[in-house]
Amino acid sequence: MRKIRTLVVLALVALSVHAQSLDFLVSGEYAWYSDERGADAYLRGYWYLGVREAAHVFVVRSVGPGASGERRFVASVVDLGADGLELGDVQGDVKPDEHGHFQAIIDLLNFLSLRKNRADAIGWMTEVEDRWEESDPPYSLYFEFGKAVPLFGFLGIRHESKSGRSYRLVAAGLIDYEEQSGFLETLPRAPAETALPEAPPALDKARSGRVDLGAFSVALDKRWTRNDEVVPGGYWLALRTIRDSQVSVESMPIAGADPDEATAWFLKAMLLIQDDWIDFDTVRIMERDGLVTLAFSLSDKRGVRNVQAFVVKLAQDSLHALNVSAFEDIWLANEAYFEGILESAR
């Protein structure tokens, strides 16, 4: 949890010192997107280096199909305040007729502009319409924005004529300049799909009682056992192994921070610095009874998938995070059971 605390503290300091319209960006964050809007599919990667000489600087990778190969750019965006954003210097090896690759630069300016212009309308998860009246025929794009989502702030884009996303977030992380190979020399990998040897056990409804976890209380049944031998302590559920699911709480000080901004930075941190691989198609963020919940599936290096959920509460100048996790097959086979635990959080 130390890395998480460090990120949140540094982000909040940066937010208070450098209040600007693109202050949702964190220096060192990167994201990869799958772009299937046209006839050819591309991977688009963006790594935000920070502010240099009053411009926001990005390293951009565009990976196309087959012989189209890959192109790389360094691009800057200048914030003109009320006059919008302006594309600054662009350095790279793109050729004039390589429109598929250069689209990554056009997108950079368009996505940042949309995020800036609609900032006041974006909540934990908000569908934002981007209308293109000048096209023939006119059409709308629908962005799934969320103020805790990395980089541009959206999970995906859907064309009005389609039901699924044609442009979607597939990977995100946080690295410093010394770790640049983590962006420049690798491509995002798909989350693993691992078949476990046994069918997931079903959890029938059992009588629940409330248990005290300090900042939170939740409803757990008699299957759960207290375990304080590891940090953080909490409750474990043993079905196939000694710990198939876990419930725990951690806290950190946030004195002086805006509550909404503190929550957003914490949830964004959870998406940026996981050591495993998040399946961003499963990310969901919601608010219920004044508490904000983030949930997603991810796979570890063995290819085993699990679900992580965080419920955030702010009280007494501290941010408290309830973490509920389980192997994904067990969670999905007993979704109402685990959702009931999240809903019981107080």
Report the C-alpha radius of gyration, rounded: 21 Å
| Individual helix count | 6
Oligomer: single chain
What number of domains?
A: 2
State the total count of DSSP E strands. 18
Describe the strand arrangement of the main beta sheet, using strand numbers: 5-4-3-2-1-9-8-7-6
Strand percentage: 35-45%
- Mean pLDDT comes to 87
Give the N-to-C terminal Cα separation: 22 Å
How would you sum up the global shape?
globular
The structural class is alpha+beta
Give the SSE string: HEEEEEHEEEEHEEEEEHEEEEHH
**Helical coverage, percent range:** 10-25%
Give start-end ranges of low-pLDDT stretches: 1-20
Please describe the biggest sheet, giving its number of strands, its sense, and whether it closes into a barrel: 9 strands, antiparallel
Can you describe this structure?
The protein is an alpha+beta fold and 346 residues long. It has 2 domains: 2-184, no CATH class; 208-344, Mog1/PsbP, alpha/beta/alpha sandwich (Protein Transport Mog1p, Chain A), CATH 3.40.1000.10. It is built from 6 helices and 18 strands. Strands 5-4-3-2-1-9-8-7-6 form a 9-stranded antiparallel β-sheet, with helices on one face. It has a 7-stranded antiparallel β-sheet with strand order 12-13-14-18-17-16-15, sandwiched between helices. It has a two-stranded antiparallel ribbon with strand order 10-11. A hairpin with a 6-residue loop joins strand 3 (55-63) and strand 4 (70-79). Helix 1 (2-17) crosses helix 4 (259-272). The chain is globular. The two termini are 22 Å apart. Mean pLDDT is 87; it is low at 1-20.
